[in-house]
Design goal:
By secondary structure, the protein is an all-beta fold. Helices cover about 0% and strands about 55% of the residues. Strand 9 and strand 10 form a beta hairpin.
Length: about 120
């Protein structure tokens, strides 16, 4: 019983910035890996950025240098700072987290319902 809720989506002009946040709540012992995915209309869902519990970060080539992923372990949140936004960044952005619900639990993936980012003039 873990819930992920994204926030921060909206309409922004090309070149603008937006910050997405995702809050995890429920039965959480620890969160191993947190990720941001996105899915544009008519396209497949793609992995945007990953951050592990140890702080290891990876980005998709398409966003590297423009997006920054971060997490606050005390608050069970992950954020995605998006700068220099392009029309092709338009998509529904989804938060994903691999969560250990108890000390003896294996990690289980949970998903948020998504937040829409529209980059358009």
């Amino acid at each position: 019983q873990v819930q992920l809720v994204e926030s921060g989506g909206g309409l922004v002009q090309p070149g603008g910035s937006l910050r997405l946040s995702c809050a995890a709540s429920g039965s959480i012992f620890s969160i191993r890996t947190m990720r941001w995915y996105r899915q544009a209309p008519g396209k497949e869902r793609e992995l945007v950025a990953t951050i592990t519990s140890g702080g290891t970060i990876n980005y998709a080539d398409s966003v590297k240098g423009r997006f920054t992923i971060s997490r606050d372990n005390a608050k069970n949140t992950v954020s995605l700072q998006m700068n220099s936004l392009k029309p092709e960044d338009t998509a529904v952005y989804y938060c994903n987290a691999n969560v250990r619900e108890t000390m003896m639990s294996s990690g289980i993936d949970y998903w948020g319902k998504g937040t829409l980012v529209t980059v358009s003039s």
